[in-house]
């Protein structure tokens, strides 16, 4: 009998047929990949169908898989308008407009499409400010913001037809005269995107799982089955939240020699260490070396202080997993 490190049930060997990857395979395949055989099939299935799916399809890091060639464009599956991440076009004619990514068959590429929204020309900005349909201000609020109602194309609707636009604006007491169409850009490489992200608990659970599976890979089973890790495992498996923060976000890069902004090495990073207080165990996870997630593996670990320090860099270009040296 083997005890699953997530559900903590003791099960026979038949219940452990699948290989659990520390880093989900949707984020790349690597030589000598880190895998586990102590996660039962039902937990494995649950993670694949829930937390990992959201991580892969609905995060900036997930979308980055296509930019960096980890995935082919035709595999792109958007979460659509309810997506947790909304992009904003960074420059050009439609700067500031809201967009989402979608696979386009004709282009055989992942393209940007505008979300239904309305832009109002602002005098002070010298450009349009865009609002999603459920966020359109009233006419009075618009005037306070500096809306230029005398501009020849003062109002611009995107991904919305004339009738809908008239209705939506009518609800806010705004009338307009239809002036013709403008076409928004489609190709993703033609515009620089800014990000408006929303990272929710499903994503945090997926990140926490990477951290805990990584610990389980390097440590003995008896250690990761200790009760000090129960709050984390129950959060990952059952979405139960303890009274303290398990996952946090940092802007600093994990690798000490890298600047906060600018181009970072292409790959994923996972580290484990004691926290500065010397009694808690923490992990840092960064996918595509972008945002750094800090995961509390065990808060105030009561057992003996052992050497747990570890770090690996998953090099995407060479498909290799490298050991990180001490800082
Ligand atoms: Zn299990």
Report on this structure:
Strands 12-15-14-13-16-17 form a six-stranded antiparallel β-sheet, covered by helices on one side. It has a four-stranded antiparallel β-sheet with strand order 7-6-5-11. It has a three-stranded antiparallel β-sheet with strand order 9-8-10, with no helix packed on it. The protein is α+β, with helices and mostly antiparallel strands. The model is unreliable at 187-198 and 259-263 (pLDDT under 50). The chain folds into three domains: 2-73, no CATH class; 86-196, no CATH class; 201-323, no CATH class. The longest helix is centred in the middle third of the chain and has 18 residues, at 201-218. Helix 6 crosses helix 8 (230-238). The radius of gyration is 24 Å and the shape is elongated. It has helices at 41-49, 51-57, 60-67, 139-145, 162-171, 201-218, 221-224, 230-238, and strands at residues 2-3, 10-11, 20-21, 35-36, 86-89, 98-104, 109-114, 117-122, 127-132, 155-158, 193-196, 247-250, 267-274, 281-286, 292-298, 310-315, 320-323. 32% of the residues are buried. It binds zinc ion (ZN). Zinc ion is lined by residues 4, 6-7, 9, 40, 42-43.
């Amino acid at each position: 009998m083997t005890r699953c490190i997530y559900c903590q049930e003791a099960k026979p060997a038949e219940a452990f047929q699948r290989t659990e990857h520390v880093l989900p395979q949707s984020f790349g395949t690597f030589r000598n990949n880190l895998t586990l055989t102590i996660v039962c099939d039902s937990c494995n299935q649950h993670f694949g169908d829930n937390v990992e799916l959201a991580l892969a399809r609905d995060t900036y890091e997930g979308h980055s898989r296509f930019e960096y060639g980890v995935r082919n464009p035709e595999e792109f599956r958007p979460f659509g308008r309810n997506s947790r991440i909304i992009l904003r076009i960074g420059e050009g004619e439609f700067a500031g407009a809201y967009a989402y990514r979608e696979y386009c068959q004709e282009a055989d590429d992942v393209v940007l499409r505008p979300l239904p929204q309305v832009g109002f020309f602002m005098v002070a900005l010298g450009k349009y400010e865009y609002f999603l349909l459920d966020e359109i201000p009233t006419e009075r609020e618009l005037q306070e913001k500096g809306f230029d109602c005398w501009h020849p194309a003062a109002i611009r609707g995107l991904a919305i037809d004339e009738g809908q636009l008239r209705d939506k604006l009518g609800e806010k007491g705004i009338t307009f005269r239809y002036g013709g169409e403008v076409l928004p850009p489609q190709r993703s490489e033609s515009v620089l995107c800014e990000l408006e992200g929303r990272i929710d608990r499903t994503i945090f659970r997926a990140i926490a799982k990477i951290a805990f599976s990584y610990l389980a890979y390097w440590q003995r089973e008896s250690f990761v089955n200790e009760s000090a890790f129960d709050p984390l495992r129950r959060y990952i498996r059952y979405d139960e939240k303890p009274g303290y923060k398990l996952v946090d976000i940092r802007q600093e890069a994990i690798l000490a020699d890298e600047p906060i902004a600018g181009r970072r090495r292409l790959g994923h990073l996972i580290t484990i260490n004691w926290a500065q207080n010397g009694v808690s165990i923490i992990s840092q996870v960064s996918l595509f070396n972008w945002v750094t997630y800090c995961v509390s593996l065990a808060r105030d670990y009561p057992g003996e202080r052992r050497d747990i320090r570890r770090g690996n860099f998953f090099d995407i270009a060479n498909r290799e997993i490298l050991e990180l040296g001490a800082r």
